[in-house]
Amino acid sequence: MADKISVAAEIEEPERRKVFRKVFRKLGAATVITVFGKAILDSRPAPAASVLRPPGALPEAEFNAACIRCGLCVEACPYDILHLASWSDPAPTGTPYFVARTDPCRMCTDIPCARACPTGALSPLLTDIKKADMGVAVLVGHETCLNYKGLTCSICVRVCPIIGEAISLKPVKNEVGLLQIPTVDSSKCTGCGTCEKHCVLSEAAIRVLPRELGLGVEGAQSVGRW
Amino acid sequence: MRRTLAFFYRNRWLFSRRVMQLLIIAAFAMELPEGGYFAQGNLSSSTWFGIGLTDPYIWLQSLLAGAPLGKSALIGMLIVAGLYALFGGRIYCSWVCPINLLTDLSYWIRQKLHIKSNFTLSKNLRVAILLLSLLLSLLSGKLAWEMVNPITQFQRELMWGSMTGAMVLASIFLFDIFVTRRGWCSHLCPVGAFYSELGRYGRLRVKATQSGACNGCAECIKVCPEPHVLAPVVARKADLVTHGDCTRCGACLDQCSTGALAMSLNLKRAGSFKGIPVVSQD
User: Fold this and answer.
1) Domain count, chain B
2) How far, CA to CA in Å, does A30 sit from each of A92, B51, B60, B62, B226?
3) pLDDT of residue B280
4) Which of B40, B55, B62 sits opposite A65 (nearest CB)?
């Protein structure tokens, strides 16, 4: 009986209530801030890469966690093609990327950028640059590409560092005549971007895209008619 | 000439600090005459003559975000963390961090303009921001603080010449002038909070000399960016500044006209241990 009374008295104690109120108020604030903060972070570019990463980059979600934005890869690149993203760029702040049309990857055989990476965000396991997967070339301009118009520009095929394997000409016969169509072998293409860089059109007809964007991903969205 | 020398001598800690900060910026920006670099990368991770260094706070965010551990980043992190733990974490804030140049300038302007208005912020706010950034890194799988971190932002802007991050720097600058006294470095920045915890038992410390020279003018407290760390010493309740928040900037030493304060490296356990100051017995 006496016990019950003392417990009740403790609960009545205003000091204790004040402490609880304070704690819960703080917990509430922390929850709200966390939820908002996470929403803000998630509103940044989606996990699928929208930019081209240096060779050896981990899959985009892992890359964003592992890359500590130090820029050692940028400084290691002998051709200065890499940039660290600033706020206005389409990649998370501070992460490295390159733009194929202005400056493609030259595919150095010793891969200095990946060697420079301290965290392994650019994997040290990549030893053969021809196995790199920066993206994949996709011929998007079926109406503008000169080869589709019956000419044999074929510049993209001729500049490819993995010549004859990653892009080759495939003869296709249609109402215009016999066309030589530049065709990408996605298993050989490293996504270095040399073809996009050299496309003679003022906007490239062949583009290098991150693999998920260039080839699509099976099962990423429910499909079918209904 | 003598007056200039005297001026430099009176502000020797300040000038040493400025020289150090500018040298670090220059080391990242300049090339060696024969083509190599002093330092490559930036303050999140860098290579100095082939030795890799990594910021432990950014490393921790990356770890929480779920990244695999790179060997050289781990070693570099241990070197940096070890040094700051040994000497005192917030040495980073006043001797290395480039943002300190900006916020010290803000503070100087604030003094010149006699701005008294001060929006009071809790010193614990930065600890909350620190915990939040770690929690968000864990939840989102991204480096939460690196989305905004003005330190690496500053270095990127400087080296690669993009200007969007200048907005952040400008807001910190104005915030420190007009809103809160030493608002950024002493109240908001989670990097400082992290290094404060890391270097809590750092052995490089400001101490009161035993000569009884202090005349109680409290000028040291006025210039201290973290006045609460000096208060026990000035009140003669402690011999040493033991609080992790002390940035070892030496402003108190420059200001003290009596020689009552000194900075010393004390590797022995005596004097203070586990952050508990020993009250002098005289």
Assistant:
1) 2
2) 25, 40, 21, 22, 26
3) 45
4) B62
Please give the Cα distance from B44 to B56 (Å, whole number): 8
Which residue in A has a C-alpha nearest to residue B136's C-alpha?
Answer: A38
Which residues of chain A does B55 touch, with a Cβ-Cβ cutoff of 8 Å? 68
Least Cα separation, residue B240 to chain A (angstroms): 33
Percent of chain B with pLDDT over 70: 92
**Range of B247's domain?**
203-277
Report residue B276 as tokens.
């508990």
Q: Which residues of A touch B44 (CB under 8 A)?
A: 68-70, 94
pLDDT digits (tens, 9 = 90+) for B21-47: 999 988 888 877 777 778 888 888 998
Tokens of A48: 């699928």
Query: Which pLDDT value is given to residue A47?
Result: 58
For A42, the closest of B44, B54, B140 (CB atoms) is B140
ipTM of the complex in this document: 0.83
CATH topology of domain A135-215: Alpha-Beta Plaits (3.30.70)
Q: In the predicted model, is pLDDT for residue B274 greater than 60? A: no
Which of these, B36, B68, B155, lies nearest to A76 by C-alpha position?
A: B36
Residues B139 and B240 in one domain: no
Contacts of A125 in chain B (CB under 8 A): none
Within 8 A by CB and 6+ apart from B247, the residues are: B90, B91, B93, B94, B192, B225, B226
Q: What is the CATH number of domain A46-134?
A: 3.30.70
* Closest chain B residue by Cα to residue A88: B164
- Give SS3 for B144: coil
A72–chain B nearest CA distance, Å:
4
Nearest to B223 by CA among B259, B263, B184, B250: B250
Whether A46-134 and A135-215 share one fold: the answer is yes
Q: Which of the listed residues B197, B224, B239 is the one where a domain comes to its end?
A: B197
Nearest-angstrom CA–CA distance, A89 and B157: 13
The 10s digit of each residue's pLDDT in A128-176 is 999 999 999 999 999 999 999 988 899 999 999 998 899 999 999 988 7
Give residue limits of the domains in chain A: 46-134, 135-215
Residue B132 has pLDDT above 70, yes or no: yes
Which segments of chain A have a pLDDT < 70? Answer: 1-13, 43-48, 219-226
pLDDT for residue B275:
45
First to last CA, chain A: 69
Q: Say whether both B95 and B168 belong to one domain.
A: yes
Q: Six-digit token pair at B241?
A: 């500044």
If asked whether residues B216 and B252 sit together in one domain, one would say yes
Q: Do the domain assignments include residue B282?
A: no
Q: B45 - beta bridge partners?
A: B42, B54
